[in-house]
Design a protein that fits this description.
The chain is of the alpha/beta class. The chain contains 10 helices and 8 strands. Strands 1-2-3-4-5-6-7-8 form an 8-stranded parallel beta sheet. Helix 2 packs parallel to helix 3. The protein is globular and about 55 Å long. The chain starts with a strand and ends in a 22-residue tail after the last helix. Bound molecules: nicotinamide-adenine-dinucleotide. Nicotinamide-adenine-dinucleotide binds next to helix 9.
């Protein structure tokens, strides 16, 4: 269970992340795209918590897929974090319609960072089955994680199954669908039965499925609430009821990785 920092403005980020660390979070998910890597580094240093107790992830932005650019971007990420290593570094999007679809060159560059010990572990985000298969076929090296959109309304089952079959850990982004699932009657009734909130039940459902999650919030009460999910357990029937909320492709909120091609100016 980690803390996501997408859409946390750089002005507030160090304080908000400090609040999350105080609440107990020890895993932070940032990205160059979020423009708050520096504040992640500051918050970790200001917390007084030993760096080795904290797991930090960042992501290679879409403009840096070519090897030289990726090396520069990774060095900048470490500099912004104020560290000589990162726990996990991942390719943010596969961009199969850009760079001649050559995300394998990008993956090979991330493998260099791992070899050098500057990235403890490397992985990918938003990779579809065909993209993962290509990486594994051409390099023989599987990513440690695939970070994908995944929540009760979009359970991304084909990608999840492939990752589980191949020992690739699933990280579920937008675990509460940016709040969209919270009014759901089925989730509400399960929440009432446990004296928990719909957000807590949804996060707990992810954890019981073995997914890695990092809900985002800037509100101290919600940050504490999202951490407080280890004193109850969903029954098999409750898990199945939430599994049944999947809307398939119609439940996807974010871009489709097969066509997403945004490269920042
Ligand atoms: P999320 O599902 O975590 O939802 C966040 C929103 O839900 C917040 O704006 C907040 O207002 C609300 N919220 C949070 N806790 C709540 C609570 N207890 N009760 C009521 N409302 C609550 O969405 P997200 O931020 O999109 O995803 C989480 C993290 O995943 C991001 O911060 C980022 O680190 C990562 N992410 C990665 C990608 C990617 O392409 N790899 C894309 C999106 C997000």
């Amino acid at each position: 269970l980690g803390f996501g920092v997408y859409q946390i403005e750089p002005e507030n980020a160090a304080e908000v992340i400090g609040t999350a660390l105080e609440a107990g979070f020890r895993h932070i998910d940032t990205a160059e795209m979020y423009q708050n890597e520096q504040q992640v580094g500051e918050a970790v240093k200001n917390s007084g918590i030993n760096r080795s107790q904290i797991h930090i992830t960042s992501k290679l932005n879409n403009g840096h897929h070519e090897p030289e650019a990726a090396r520069r971007a990774f060095a900048e990420t470490l500099e912004k974090l104020g560290d000589d290593y990162i726990d996990l570094f991942i390719i943010h999007w596969p961009l199969p319609t850009k760079y001649d679809g050559d995300f394998v060159q990008t993956w090979n560059t991330l493998l260099e960072f791992k070899k050098e010990g500057r990235a403890r572990s490397v992985g990918v985000s938003n990779f579809q089955v065909s993209h993962l298969q290509k990486l594994m076929d051409e390099t023989g090296e599987k990513p440690s994680v695939n970070q994908i959109e995944l929540h009760p309304y979009f359970q991304n089952r084909e990608v999840v199954q492939f990752c589980q079959d191949n020992g690739i850990a699933i990280e579920a982004w937008s675990p509460i669908a940016q709040g969209d699932v919270l009014e759901d009657a089925a989730l509400q009734s399960i929440a009432d039965a446990h004296g928990k909130s719909a957000a807590q039940v949804t996060l707990r459902w992810h954890i019981q499925h073995g997914f890695i999650i990092f809900p985002k919030s800037s509100t101290p009460e919600r940050i504490a609430e999202n951490f407080d999910i280890f004193d109850f357990e969903l029954s098999p029937d409750e898990m199945s009821a939430i599994d049944a909320l999947d809307k398939g492709e119609a439940g996807r909120n974010g871009p489709n990785p097969d066509t997403f091609d945004m490269i920042p100016a």
